[in-house]
Amino acid sequence: MDKQYGGEQAATSQAAPGAASSDAALVGFREDRWGAVIVAAGRGTRMGTPESKQFLLLRGKPVLVHTLELFQGMAAIREIVLVTGAADAERCRRWCGEYGLTKVAAIVEGGSERQHSVRIGLDSLTADWALVHDGVRPLVSEAAVSACLAHAEETGAAVLAVPVKDTIKKVDAAGVIESTPDRSSLWAIQTPQAFRRARLAEAHERALADGFLGTDDSMVVERLGDPVAVAQGEYTNIKITTPEDLPYAEFLLEQRERGR
Question: Which pLDDT value is given to residue 30?
């Protein structure tokens, strides 16, 4: 483990009932009490490039650097733990110095699954509250993150999400539609996801002991019986996963920079 390397687009819809919006008043939101686990250990193949998606260049900088810079600039964030592959630690360390990412307190080697990487990252976090964010979501806005953190402090746990726009079908193994869930109750879950650090760590340890593998961190917390609230996210908070995502991210970033 290495330590101390120093150195908006808003959603087009209004906040749905029961969800805190990105524009919600952040009453009671306290600064400098949060730690961020940034997960960037994946080796996905859907991008179709030799380079991992988190290290591809987005307007001249690695995607991951854009992500880290957002949390570096937030007063709420006291420390950042970056989880990456062992072979990538050196260049990540170099970027932390090059881009002044002084809040990156540790760079740790991830596990075989994202869930394992989060658990490992939490071990290096000291803050009372923890957020987990995908390294390949560089376009999340500070307003959306702040809304998620404020909602978590109010309720105990919160995730960013947006109402689904498309009709969703449940399909069987033969490819035949079984049912159509009510779209009004369906949300597409994003990151960051925010929790009390000790509770999230407990949930991950329980999942490991039980051999449970979820698709996001809220799933492991839900297993403990804890409610997890939804904070209104943004449709522009895309996860860069497939080839068409990168040029779209470049377009969104260009539009955001022009609007400043």
Answer: 62
